[in-house]
Design goal:
The structure holds 2 protein chains of 2 kinds. Chain A is mainly α. Helix content of chain A is 38%, strand content 5%. In chain A, 18% of the residues are buried. In chain B, strands 1, 2, 3, 4, 5, 6, 7, 8 and 9 form a 9-stranded mixed sheet that branches. Helices cover 23% and strands 39% of the residues of chain B. Classes of the chains: A mainly alpha, B alpha+beta. Chains A and B meet through strand 1 and helix 2 of A and strand 1, strand 2, strand 3, strand 4 and strand 5 of B.
Chain lengths: 55, 150
């Protein structure tokens, strides 16, 4: 691997690397992401969070 | 290898990102989604990052397929760009990441470890190991990752 994973390229400097678009549809109700999120919730509810983030 | 990200498109609420991987296997549409989670006793909002290939023929997302488009570092840089953009919008949230397989999780660990010098200036990162969260250290086999903008 080379370079900095967080570095910005030339197009980023021109504001083009990330473009806001209404054509990007929401996947909020996609079964794939719902399943992944439930698994992640189960993991964190079982193992907890770093103490600094708990009430 | 080139670690510059692909151009990304993001939905107006900054939760859904898309970009196209191009290589020997052609063009593959990639989807990155941040989903808010319900975690007991959490004092902070937490989002899960999900990531996969869009299978147009079957109209579904797959994160077990091995695309092999010879651009894995560029893809990871693109996912990192999505995380940066998402946390630009929501700096006071935690992002949770876990690979779909142990191999993928190890790969994410390697990527974070390799870029740790630059990441740690921008993010606080924790890894889950042996039943506990700890501040991310290189070369430890974490099973899950949490990150928050500094």
């Amino acid at each position: 691997m080379s370079g900095n994973i967080l570095q910005k390229d030339q197009s980023n400097n021109n504001g083009k690397t990330v473009v806001v678009s209404k054509k990007v549809k929401s996947h909020a109700k996609d079964p794939f992401f719902i399943g992944k999120t439930k698994a992640a919730e189960a993991f964190l509810n079982k193992h907890g969070l770093p103490a600094v983030f708990t009430k | 290898m080139n670690s510059l990200p692909y151009n990304l498109e993001v939905s107006p609420h900054f939760l859904d990102f898309e970009f196209s991987s191009t290589g020997p296997k052609g063009e593959v549409r990639k989807i990155v989604r941040f989903t808010k989670m319900k975690i007991a006793d959490a004092s902070i909002e937490i989002y899960n990052i999900g990531f996969g290939d869009y299978n147009k023929a079957e109209d579904r997302i797959d994160d077990l397929i091995v695309t092999d488009n010879k651009d894995s570092e560029k893809v990871m840089a693109s996912v990192a760009a999505a995380v940066m953009t998402f946390t630009d919008q929501r700096p006071d949230t935690l992002v949770f990441a876990q690979g779909s397989t142990a191999v993928r999780t190890r790969y994410y660990n390697m990527v974070i470890a390799y870029h740790h010098a630059s990441i740690k200036d921008i993010f606080d990162v924790w890894g889950h190991h042996s039943g506990q969260w700890e501040v991310f250290k290189r070369n430890k086999p974490y099973t899950a990752i949490l990150a928050k903008r500094k």
